[in-house]
Fold:
Amino acid sequence: MDTSPPPALAVDVAIAQNAAEKLSQLRTAVANVIFGQDELIELAVTGLLAGGHILLEGLPGLGKTELVKSFAKALRLDTKRVQFTPDLLPGDITGNPILQEQGGERRFVFQPGPVFTNLLLADEINRASPKTQSALLEAMQERRVTVVGTTHVLPDPFFVLATQNPIELEGTYPLPEAQVDRFLFKLEVTRVAPEVLQRIVMQRRLGEEPMLASIMSREELLELSALARRVFMPPVVAEYIARLVNASHPGQSQVAQSIKYGASPRAAIGLAAASRARALIQGRGYVGTEDVQAVAKPVLQHRIILHYQARLEGLTPSEVTVRLLAEVPVEAKPLPRTLAAAKVS
Structure:
C-alpha cells in the first residue's frame, strides 16, 4: 500500500530546511542569553512551534523567567506577566466588566486582563488558589475566556509559559490534573555545570537585562507553526505513538504496574504535534520514531500518576517514562531476520 503523503500536505525538502535554519537562529539567539541549557531551549522551541503551553519546573534563580522573556524578545510577541499569589482573583487574569459612562449612560464595559496577550508568563503558578488556577483552563484549551456570559477570543498565537518551584510547599496549591494536562510540555530546569556558571559570572551583572536581537515576527512564527502541522506522519509512527500511550495504562505493560492512571488521548495528540514540530526543526518533512522518543518524556511525565507504593520507593514519573520508552518496541512486531522468515510471516 502506498503510504506517501498527499502532495497538498507534503512539506518540500527545501522549505523544511529553510524553516530549520530560521529556527536554528532562534535557538542560537536564546542560547546567547540562557547559557548551558541547549536541550531545554530546543524543547521550548519545539513546544512553541507545536502551539502548546509549557510548564517550567525548577529551583529559584535558574533562569526560568529569563527564558520566557528571551523568547518574547526574539519572537516580537506581546507579553504579559502575572505573579501568582494566594490573594490573586480570577478576574485579575481574565479581566472584569468596569462601570463606565458613555454618551450620558452608565454601562459595564469589559476591561481585558493580562491573559489577552500572545505570551503569558504565569510566574509561580502553584501559589494561586485552585479557583484562580481554573480561570486559565478555558483560555489554555479553547483560546478564549467567558466573563459574565460573554465570550472573548484571545489573540493568535496564545501561549502560557508557567513556572513553579518544586521544593516549597507552604502557601502553594498543587495544580489539578485537569490543568496539568493542558500543558503540552513539562520541562525541568536544572543547574548548570561549573564552567557555564563561570561564564555567567563573567558576562552578567546584577540588575542588568541582557540584550537580545529579534529573530522573527509573530506572522513568521504562525507560518512556521502552520508548516509544522503539514509535516507528514507515517502510519507506522502514528501506531507507535498509540502503543506508547496505551502502554502507560495499568495492565498494558510491565512498567505500568507502578502507574495508577496513564496518559490521556490528549497526550497522544500532543505527542504527535510535538513530533511534527521536532521533525521540522531537524529540517525534515516527515516524522520518524526518533522524534517521538525525543519529546515523549516532556509530553508524558506530568500526565502519568504513580501508585502510592511506587512514590514511596522513590520512583518518579520521569523515570517511569524512560522505562516505558525502553519497554515499548518501535516496531509492533520484530522484523524478520531472513527473507524466508519474511515470506512465512
Q: What stands out?
A: The first strand starts at residue 53 and ends at 58. Residues 1-8 have pLDDT under 50 and may be disordered. Residues 56 and 163 are 5 Å apart (CA to CA).
